[in-house]
Design brief:
73% helix; high voltage-gated calcium channel activity; glycoprotein; 2 domains; Recoverin, domain 1; 2 strands; 162 residues; VDCC_alpha-1_subunit; two-stranded antiparallel ribbon
């Protein structure tokens, strides 16, 4: 079926084009994986940010018990903001965001009227990084909770205005 010269030309073209496409596809996959891993290395929170959080917390926790009163939450966030720490900068992005985070912190506090060092660090860290790193079920639950805190913040803003 067909000519011998045509079959050689078809085979050569098929082989050359196929090989070039597969090589380009292979290189594209390698580059994509390289950039994905490179993006993972540039994490939003660094050790310096956590050290800054620890220092600002120590300034407010004069008893060294690992807890501070809720009324010092804004002061802590403002100090972190002045340090250009993402733990404070994300929360103070807007007054509404601050209110929503404050509602979350107050709702999750285990001790009466006091914030715990580790719990607050985790909460602020989740606001900086986002809930994408959580397992899917936890991510959905967190998004529902954040929506509820946003509604509470909106209500608190409205009741404060009137």
């Amino acid at each position: 079926c067909g000519s011998a010269a045509g079959s050689f030309i078809y085979f050569d073209l098929f082989f050359l084009l196929g090989a070039n496409i597969l090589v380009n596809l292979f290189v594209a996959v390698l580059l994509e994986n390289f950039f994905n891993f490179q993006m993972q290395d540039t994490f939003v929170l660094s050790e310096d940010h956590l050290v800054s959080y620890q220092k600002r917390w120590a300034e407010l926790d004069t008893t060294n018990k690992g807890v501070i009163p809720v009324n010092k939450f804004r002061e802590l966030i403002e100090r972190l903001y002045r340090d250009r720490n993402p733990l404070g900068m994300t929360v103070l992005a807007s007054e509404f965001k601050f209110r929503a985070v404050r509602m979350e912190v107050i709702a999750n506090k285990p001790k009466g009227g006091e914030l715990v060092f580790c719990d607050l660090a985790i909460t602020l860290g989740l606001h900086v990084v986002g809930s994408h790193g959580l397992p899917y079920a936890d991510m959905l639950k967190r998004q529902e909770e954040l929506a509820q805190f946003a509604r509470l913040a909106a209500v608190s803003k409205l009741t404060h205005v009137y």
